[in-house]
Each structure stands twice: as C-alpha cells, then as structure tokens.
Amino acid sequence: MGDLVITNGDAAGELLRRTLPEAEILPWRDVLHEGPVPLTPSLAELTRLRADYLARRGWGELAQLRADFAARDGGLAQSPSFDRVVLWFEHDLFDQLQLLQLLDWFASRPREDGSLLLVQASDFLGRQTPDALLGLTKTETSVSAQQLALAACAWAAFRQATPETWHAPFALDLAPLPYVEPAVRRMLEELPGPDGLSRTERQMLRALAPGALTPAAVFVAVQRQEEAVFMGDWSFWGLLDGLALADEPLIEGLAAAPFEPEEAGLDQAYFQSEPSLTSFGEEVLAGGADHAAKNEIDRWWGGTHLTNDALWRYDAEAQRLIAPE
Hints:
325 residues; alpha/beta; Rossmann fold; Arc Repressor Mutant, subunit A; 2 domains; 5-stranded mixed sheet; 3-stranded mixed sheet; 14 helices; 14% strand; globular
C-alpha cells in the first residue's frame, strides 16, 4: 500500500499531502507536555484520558475529541498494511514527546528491517516549502533497534508517578535520538523551580517586568526566550491565566480571564488588556518569595501529579531534582 507518513499535526500534514501525494498522511495530534500522561495498560486507555483532559480544557467537544483520537489510533493500527512507515518530526519538545510515544508503540510491534523510517527536522515542518520538504526526504534513515529501545525507555520514564526516571536518561547515551536530550531538559524545566514557577511562567514574569504588555506581546517575548519553540497559544494562555487568577496573583490587569477558546466575545477584552506584575509577582521574580507557598499547585507533568503536598521541583541551574519535603 505504499507509504504511511505520520507527522506532528495538521499544518505539517497538509504540506506533506501536497508534497507526497502518493503517501497516506496521519497527523498525530496531542499536546503531551500538558496534562496527564500516566502509565496505562493500553494506548486506547491513554487516548481516553487525553481526550477527556482536552475536553475539560475547553479545546473541543468530548465526543468529537474521542472520535478524532480513535480515528488517529485506528490509522496507526493499519500501519502493518503499508510497505513503509515514515515518521516526520521536528526538534522541539512537542514533537519529541510524540515521537517517543510512536517509537515506543513500534518497539513492541517490530517491522521488517528498513520499513520504519525517520525524518527529523531542525526547523518547523509547517513553515517549509514543498521543495524543502522534498529535500528532507533524502534524509530518511531506518529506525534502529537502539533507537526503539531508547525511546521505549524514555517514554516509560516520562509516564512514571515521579520524575526521577525522566531525569535518569542523562546517564544514558542519547546520541541515537539527538533531539531527546534537549527535550528532556526542557520538560524538566516545566517542573516548579525553587521559586515555585515553571520556566515558562518565569519567562512570562520576566517579559512583564519592564512594564505592561498585551497577552500577544507576552507570548512573542516568551517565544523568543526558547531555544526550540514548542508551546502553542492555548497552552500559553492557560499558564498566563493561572498567574492572574491565583489566590495571591502574580500579575494583574488581565481582563476577561480565563481565556475560553469557544467564547469569542471575550477575545477582544482579553487580548487588548495589558497585564503587569503585582508586588508579589515582583517578589517571586526577584527570588524573595515562593509562588507555591501561597498558591495552589495542582497539575500533571507526564505521569506525575504535582500538588503542594507532593511538589517535585527542578533546579535548572544545578540541574537537580528536588524531592517533596
């Protein structure tokens, strides 16, 4: 049946459909750096958890999300009927988590040698021209047993109830998947730091430190601080809302928060507002206060449920995990 091409989402998928018209394109849609990704007995069970989480975030209707994910998983289940499966993914955290999930799936369902291939791009596929994508086809490489084993190890580590095993791959040889190490580090930086903030939240406060900005301007400023941009705007607004709506707010002036994807009438007020730091936000940013000491933490990081009573932290400067007290 020719090639099945699996890629990171609809923008890249549409470009690949135009560039590789003979191939079947399967977009792998999920924001795995956000929300629960625990160990489950099957892909189907994880899929249900992910669809339920995205629906709770207001990112779609539950029935439609479940149907879309089921269709995606059904497409993957049909992969043995294709002559080749080619994975097209980028260098950033968003893509690398998806790639680990897929390689883990194929690790337990081996294909003939040379029929599972990988294209890794150091830039965003959705921004490429068809000619550039055709050039990338020349970089296809067969996925090795070593790559499959490494991916299975890393994917299992990400889904554990604590982040300790995700930190452990630094002791392994990550060279077979060259973009995994920066992805591991960047995901660790989304754990609360000694100040209680994730790296993204800290970058938001830094962007606002000189003075008030619109949410869109904050988004652009934070993206510029990333080595490899990975976070979409809806995820970003959720974190920004959290800083504004905390019991002890770190920012003020964010109108119509929280952002509601399906309530377009609030968009104008939200995006025209100009939030700024509160005195508490200034204190936390300066290192004189702990966000988590005054505000509730209740979110998932892979398979780890972070709460104030079970708060794993990561000191990025020392590159060490800090266990809950």
